[in-house]
Specification:
Elements (H helix, E strand, L loop, with lengths): L8 H17 L3 E2 H8 L3 H11 L18 E2 L1 H7 L1 E2 L1 E3 L11 H15 L8 H13 L15 H13 L1 E8 L5 E14 L2 E8 L4 E6 L3 E10 L21 E8 L21 E8 L5 H7 L5 E4 L1 H16 L12
Antiparallel strand pairs: 1-3, 2-4, 5-6, 5-9, 6-7, 7-8, 10-11, 10-12
Pfam families: HTH_PafC, WCX, WYL
Organism: Cryobacterium cheniae
Protein name: WYL domain-containing protein
Length: 331
């Protein structure tokens, strides 16, 4: 910003509006540093600071008393040419994130910073610091560990970049192990899970794999095969096949978009604002994570086998909380 001589009133106002939050982000900063940052003369900065120091809003008395104005540390300003804001007005009354909202955003940013491609992005750290300072109260301390799939993501990314195939042992939801050789195309995330999408040479079709079910993952020196002209990467993460099974679920109308990746169809039945949708899944075991992720929202209606799979899995989880604690003392 060039706020030199000859600026109009609107440009001077723009400079002042940019200067105030900048000074708020720096507890203590010299006039020279501010001058270099905004590319203005030191005298322009001093004039602006003097103007800020006599600016404010009238209080209940409709008069500009001391507490109604900005204030600075005058000794530092006049003696050392250093700017330190000591009192703010109006700006403190602007809407702010609550401590809980700021903590949630910081957690999300920590998660992003744990990913390989974002490990060196200083902007994330700067944004987290600003969220901490600008929240209405001190955010709760949060710590997000690096994703378990981090090393796998790095291997796949390198393979995509080098244009080579990858090999790994894959554990499917049925508990079966298979060796796979895949042309990697893309990595995607859904909530906390990461997925690899690519061409599976075993199935001779596009497939999606969960990274946390892979083991012995490594890149080969075999170049990826040219993708045939009619092989397009589907937009939906989960694609159906002729062997898929139909499952009917019931859920609120407002929650139907949460099932978009499963391409739900049908609307028969349901009570009140609840509707029924039919999903196509590769196997009933795949419903367990879906239903528990939407606990209290989605209910499996049919078939009975699907209900039994989800019920038994939930019961096994509850049973772990019902284990009898060892008795202390007694005979």
């Amino acid at each position: 910003m060039n706020a030199g001589p000859g600026l109009g009133a609107s440009d001077k106002l723009t400079f002042l509006l940019a200067l105030v939050p900048f000074l708020m982000d720096h507890d203590r900063i010299s006039v020279t540093d501010v001058s270099e940052h905004f590319r203005v003369s030191p005298d322009r900065v001093r004039d602006a600071v003097n103007l800020i120091a006599v600016s404010g809003i009238p209080g209940e008395t409709r008069q500009y008393l001391h507490g109604d104005l900005f204030d600075i540390h005058w000794d530092e300003f006049e003696t050392n040419d250093v700017i330190v804001l000591t009192h703010l007005v109006a700006i403190d009354d602007s809407p702010r994130f609550s401590a809980r909202e700021a903590a949630a955003l910081i957690a999300g940013l920590q998660y992003l910073s744990s990913l390989p491609e974002n490990a060196d992005v200083d902007a994330i750290a700067t944004l987290m610091a600003k969220l901490t300072r600008s929240a209405s109260a001190a955010p709760s301390q949060v710590a997000v560990s690096g994703t378990d799939a981090r090393s796998s993501i790095a291997v796949v990314q390198a393979a995509v970049r080098d244009g080579v195939q990858i090999e790994f042992d894959y554990l499917n939801a049925r508990g079966e192990h298979e060796s796979r050789r895949v042309d990697p195309w893309r990595i995607q995330s859904v909530d906390r899970d990461w997925y690899l999408r690519g061409w599976c040479h075993l199935r001779e079709a596009a497939r999606t794999f969960r990274l946390d079910r892979m083991s012995d993952l490594h890149a080969t020196d075999v170049p990826t095969s040219p993708r045939s002209a009619d092989t397009l990467l589907p937009e939906n993460l989960f694609e159906g096949s002729a062997s898929d099974l139909d499952v009917t679920v019931e859920l609120p109308t407002s929650a139907v978009p949460l099932l978009a990746d499963y391409a739900p169809h049908g609307s028969a039945g349901g009570k009140g604002d609840r509707v029924r949708r039919t999903l196509r899944v590769a196997h009933f075991h795949g419903l367990k994570r879906l239903v528990t992720g939407l606990a209290g929202v989605v209910e499996v209606v049919d078939p009975a086998e699907a209900r039994a799979v989800v019920r038994d899995w939930a019961a096994a989880g509850v049973a772990r909380y019902d284990e009898t604690e060892p008795t202390v003392g007694g005979e």
